[in-house]
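hiii, so i know i said id send this last week but things got crazy w the move. better late than never?? heres the sequnce for the chain we talked about at the cafe, plus the structure i predicted for it. fair warning i was half asleep when i ran it
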Amino acid sequence: MEMPNVIQNFERFRDRGFEVLAVSIDDKKDAWLRGIKDFGTPFVQLSDLKGRNSELAAIYGITTIPANLLVNPQGKIIAADLRGKALTRKLEELFNEL
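okay and structure toks below
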């Protein structure tokens, strides 16, 4: 349900340096690829196809979906689990568009 919001924010802020790296916890390749196609996601998608045992998700302690992290250019996590308008407001703040 959150993917359309992420895509909209990506389209709005990508020219300002906003990047999205999506990590899926799918365990079936066909379902994962179908989801990418259905949403038309315009950014990098990763999955190790290990489902809830994903090593990629474990690195950042992600145990629920959807989850998101805003990471600054220095690699520091500056916000987590923002959804809907909260994500948009934070990006507007970070890119000084209030």
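btw Strands lie at 21-23, 44-46, 69-71, 77-80. thought thatd interest u
miss u guys!!
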